[in-house]
Automatic annotation (TrEMBL):
Organism: Draconibacterium aestuarii
EC class: isomerase
Transmembrane spans: none
Domain of life: Bacteria
Keyword Lyase: yes
Name by which UniProt lists this protein: Alanine racemase
Length: 366
């Protein structure tokens, strides 16, 4: 067994592979191109695991991430982030080497592509289907027409279709609400496909969010989906009802550094710089930053929701523990914390280890 001395993010490769296999099977079952989002793991090593299940096309969230994965052999990449016009030269270099798709949602970005694109480039129009973050509402077909007119004026640009991220499924209060929001987004995209398919016979619809990809089964009219978090899952997905605890492949292992019996609190080395400050609501109505698993009498025990990571400062984490379990945890013990948001936790850590001790490197930040 390898030694852990400080906060360490562990991933269970077997669970990751199972999650990838199940999502790849679902994509095949619904005749969808599986273009998983790699921003969750940001690792060329983990990227290779997807190839075992036939994945050939990927999604990323930045030009830098696209460059990283292109350098590791991926040659069909969608940058699922509204075009940053300041990076057009980098985009041109990348598009000259691989099959690259970008997103636009305004005429300004479309005009930059029209005037400065020097290599063949696929272009999706980003549609807002209810998340209210980025994208054009599906009802604003006049804005869509204006962008299409610009894109059509440069032969190097190929209009691929409409892309959405139904991110408001993460805010759902029930699985029924996830189904409802997914179906609403689906109807909006299908409306656009029916409107423009005569003009653009090869038009595609691309959807991507882990909650709906995990539990929904109506993808009629959709050509590809792009979930990302599913490879690890986390407490946020569990709280939404889209995965089981056994599906969560990540855990942060943190040393115990102090105990305070007067407050029934235990302090770990593991804070916001390791976990982020995303929370879910605990059963007591208070913010929960992570669930606790301890080693007791030779077995790993997942403690109930009366025990949880209740506070985070920069480097410190505070565990709320009942008196019955307080003495089971000692200074110097290693505590497993199941994180709320595995994407942010991995990004903050910058590296991972498998439960077998293999070091998993991630994309350099600079």
């Amino acid at each position: 067994m390898f030694e852990i001395l400080r906060p360490t993010l562990l991933i269970d490769k077997e669970i990751c592979l199972r999650n990838i296999e199940q999502m790849a099977y679902k994509a095949a079952k619904h005749n969808l191109r599986f273009r998983p989002h790699f921003k969750t793991h940001q690792s060329a090593q983990i990227g290779e695991w997807y190839k075992l299940y036939g994945v050939k096309a990927i999604t990323v969230s930045s030009v830098q991430m696209a460059e990283y994965f292109a350098a590791h052999g991926w040659d069909d990449i969608t940058i699922a982030f509204s075009l940053n016009i300041l990076e057009i030269q980098n985009i041109n270099r990348l598009a000259a080497a691989i099959k690259l798709n970008v997103l636009v949602e305004n005429k300004e970005a479309a005009n930059v592509l029209k005037d400065k694109a020097s290599s063949s480039l696929g272009v999706y129009i980003k549609i807002d289907t209810g998340y209210n973050r980025t994208g054009i509402p599906s009802s604003r077909t006049g804005s869509i027409d204006s962008i299409l007119e610009i894109l059509d004026s440069n032969k190097k640009l190929t209009f691929k279709g409409f892309l959405t991220h139904t991110g408001h499924t993460y805010q759902a209060k029930s699985t029924n609400e996830i189904y409802s929001r997914h179906f609403d987004a689906l109807l909006k995209l299908r409306f656009l496909k029916s409107k423009y398919i005569k003009q653009y016979p090869s038009i595609e619809l691309s959807m991507g969010d882990t909650p709906s990809a995990s539990i929904c089964n109506n993808f009629e009219g959709v050509d590809e989906f792009r979930p990302g978090n599913f490879v690890f899952y986390d407490l946020m997905q569990h709280s939404l009802g889209v995965c089981e605890m056994r599906d969560i492949a990540v855990k942060m292992v943190c040393p115990v550094v102090a105990k305070h019996i007067s407050r029934n609190e235990i302090i770990i080395h593991g804070g916001a710089v390791h976990f982020s400050k995303d929370t879910v609501l605990n059963t007591d109505g208070k913010p929960l930053f992570g669930r606790i698993r301890i080693q007791y009498k030779g077995e790993k025990v997942l403690l109930d929701n009366k025990h949880y990571l209740s506070k985070l400062s920069q480097e410190h984490g505070t565990l709320k523990i009942t008196p019955a379990n307080y003495e089971k945890i000692n200074i110097g013990d290693l505590i497993e914390i199941i994180p709320v948001h595995s994407c942010l936790t991995a990004n903050l850590m910058g590296y991972m280890q498998t439960t077998e001790g293999e070091l998993i490197k991630m994309m350099p930040k600079y």
